[in-house]
Amino acid sequence: MDSQHNPPPRVYQSPPLYYNEATSTAFEPFDTDSLSQHRPPTTAPDEENLPPPRYTRENDPFQLASKLKSPEEISKMQANTSRKRGCAATYRQVLPKSTTSTATGKTALNPSSRRLQGFYHTQNENIKRMLKPVEEHVRAAKEVNANNQLRYRIAVYGSFAANIILSIVQVYGAVSSGSLSLFTTMADAIFDPLSNLTLLLCNKAVHRVDPRIFPAGKARIETAGNICFCFLMTAVSFILIAFSAKELAAGSDSKTGSFHLPSVIAVTVAFATKLALFIYCWALRNISQIRILWEDHRNDLLINGFGILTSVGGSKLRWWIDPMGATILSVLISGLWLRTAYKEFMCLIGVTADTNMQQLITYISMTHSPLVTAIDTVRAYTSGPRLLVEVDIVMDPDASLRSSHDVAEELQMKLESLPDVERAYVHVDYETTHKPEHFLKKEL
User: Fold this and answer.
1) What is the set of domains in the chain, with CATH numbers?
2) What letter would DSSP give residue 350?
3) Sheet harboring 386-395: ordered strands across?
4) What pLDDT score was predicted for residue 435?
5) What pLDDT shows up at residue 288?
6) Where is the Cation efflux protein cytoplasmic domain (predicted)?
7) Angstrom distance (rounded) from CA 95 to CA 109
8) Lowest mean pLDDT among 89-103, 243-257, 327-341, 411-425
9) What does DSSP say about strands 107-109 and 98-100: parallel, antiparallel, or unpaired?
């Protein structure tokens, strides 16, 4: 037999096998009878027909819980500020580890000590996150969605209604004043209801899927809709830049433009309304559907505020301040939306998940079953608003097809139950010395 197919040394030693109904570290058991559709009915309670072994609830195979630091231990930690062994005394004299405030009596830590304590606080959070059961992740996500459902509707439908009213107000302000800066804010205000409408239609389309036509779902339609809207706003901004450049080239006979107070009041009302919506959506910005609204309100605050200043400046100081402000605003709007389009493109193309999510997926895979002797590959990358996960697990080459199938299928369903995961693919290997099964570039 070729040496390439010889089983390699195991990456870590598997703990003893437990044939009980407990799951991997703090994981609730899955219904194995409903998972495996290919398993024939058992007739004898022999070892061959037992479900694949799992870790018990109390088992922590990598002893992560022992790495948790108590608040008292973290508060006593001081960073070693010396850089050279022979100069430790000098560093202690120049940069003491802590100083005591005579006014408050509290110890003030130097930046290095604060960073060290912050590191251990973050490590504690990551360890607790990995030790949390998958069911806890699912339950917490459902509770957040249930608690935020009313606030989500208020944010979406409230923003939609407010944007319709504000677009009418800003149309009046721009037309009555003739200010190019206010025309720029008007164009942005008109497209805000269209953005909300796109969001609502995409959200409904995601929940109405024909599996025969879209076997992988339509979650990426949200990302595609955001990209189309970003380029639409950019095109409008370029048109306004052209009008502003034409007015700057034509010049003006008067020193200043005309001042129209109702127009300024109309845009000020729009600014105050956007500020209230921005504050409201800020608490829900981690929801993918709300984040685009929050970013839109944030951009509108900057645009409306700057538009008011340049419009008033053109009517009180110099005429060219207004078209110049409109040009700057249009460039700013196109830059903000192109930046948003770039981020949405990256999500659609498939950028890798953040480190914390990769660590969680790796730990769940490693502690799924004692039959998993090693982890060969873990990939997690975006596919629209959620993630695709690929995991290559290593099992004993003499393991039966039934046990390999059951372990892989249970792990797939466990990973797919995570709130941020769209699909998971689990591949079973018996060694780790082979070349990767998937290439980054396919050559025809």
Assistant:
1) 64-81+108-131 (no CATH), 147-349 (1.20.1510.10), 355-429 (3.30.70.1350)
2) T
3) 372-383, 386-395, 421-429
4) 72
5) 61
6) 367-429
7) 11
8) 89-103
9) antiparallel
